[in-house]
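Re: weekly structure request thread

Next one in the queue (386 aa):
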Amino acid sequence: MTPASHSAPGPFPATGFRPHRVVVLALDGLLPFELGIPHRIFGRPKDALGRHLYEVVTCSVRPPGPVETDADFAIHVAHGPEALADADTVIIPASYELGPVHAEGVLTEELAAALARLRPGTRLASICTGVYVLAAAGLLDGRPATTHWADAARLQRLFPKVRVDPDVLFIDDGDVLTSAGVAAGIDLCLHMVRRDHGAAVANDVARRTVVPPHRDGGQAQYIERPVPDPQQASTTTARAWALGRLHEPIQLRDMAAQESMSVRTFTRRFREETGVSPGQWLTQQRVERARHLLETTDRTVDQVARDAGFGTAQSMRQHLQAALGVTPTAYRRTFRTEKDRKIWKTPGRTGKDGTGPSRGRQNVSTPRATRPASVSAAAFSKSSTG
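Done, posted below.
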């Protein structure tokens, strides 16, 4: 979803620049940790001129004043529901005091009145049980959504029209995004930054936040199940080994050999630890490598495909289309920095794939969850596709 246009005057009227406005809706019983996630993630990104790419505002459904938390303190919120009317993105963190929203699936009068202020086209996101607000408002009917794994079954019973997926960390359904519990809110917010401004910007925010830019697997790996013997070896060595040679063909048996395991045991252990199969994990890592190279180098699409381990441009194009919804050339046009775009205008620097300067900014917006698509046996073939 392209961030909605906005006619209100911004903080930089002389230049016409206006940061994307993120409004966080603070409800009574909120979790302070989750309330702070949007401020931490969206408060960091800046453009080449040092201007903040986002403006983050916290509001309440009531006039400015205290909002109770689940801790032994309240917070003072300086904005009332009117702030929602100017939002480009609205984020609803979890609350332990949703009342009829959580108990009966219906909005309170003040919450309904607050949400009625939203402009058409506003991007909506929830963290953990904040999804109940979106569902009670009818915004998730017929759509995929997720929440904390411990609350997923109840969400499905209360809102049968919602397609609840309890296994993923977050779901991006275009203009509505939902995340699993607690720290999955970080994954969701980093994803939105990545969607808006590319992997390089999101990765920088992740480094400054001291978190991984992308977590392997989904929340299925955190659900309480019989766990492997702690004395048994992990698959960490194999993953590090594979990351160091993504550009090469990688066989499943070779990964298993790094841990001195049989292929069957390694595959089972790998899925227990990451939530995905080795083939799905390799594809994820190669897609991330390709994104980085497309954003930060002037290598041709064929070169990027080889260096990321896809072997051919056609193979990489298919994987990026499946994962991101765009072609490599379109992705590069979107997420090149202005400095890079000027370089590409220089004679002799245009790539063989025809990539040139961007005529305008677009935003990757294809509905998908973080669960990887199925991976064929080709993921471990002997060919250069890896």
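The two ends are 33 Å apart (CA to CA). Confidence is low (pLDDT under 50) at residues 1-11, 224-231, 338-386.
Next request, please.
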